[in-house]
Amino acid sequence: xxxxxxxxxxxxxxxxxxxxxxxxxxxxxxxxxxxxxxxxxxxxxxxxxxxxxxxxxxxxxxxxxxxxxxxxxxxxxxxxxxxxx
Length: 85
Hints:
- With 85 residues, the chain is α+β, with helices and mostly antiparallel strands.
- It has a single domain (16-84), classed as Alpha-Beta Plaits.
- Helices cover 25% and strands 7% of the residues.
- It has a two-stranded antiparallel sheet.
- It starts with 23 loop residues before the first strand and ends with a helix.
- It comes from Candidatus Methylopumilus universalis.
């Protein structure tokens, strides 16, 4: 699954630089996560880095983007290939 940022976000700016896929960006009111780029850090880290640094615990799994670890790994490989091309 991709992750999402809830409206409990306090815009502390710590999650955005931690994302290895550049999936986190400043939205209109709070930070947001592009589910097409989010791999839950699969391929990079053992745990999602945004969740690790979030001081208010406002980054749950996104219920509309259900993906198995294998799917997340495939997405990771595709994103890496896109960087090369």
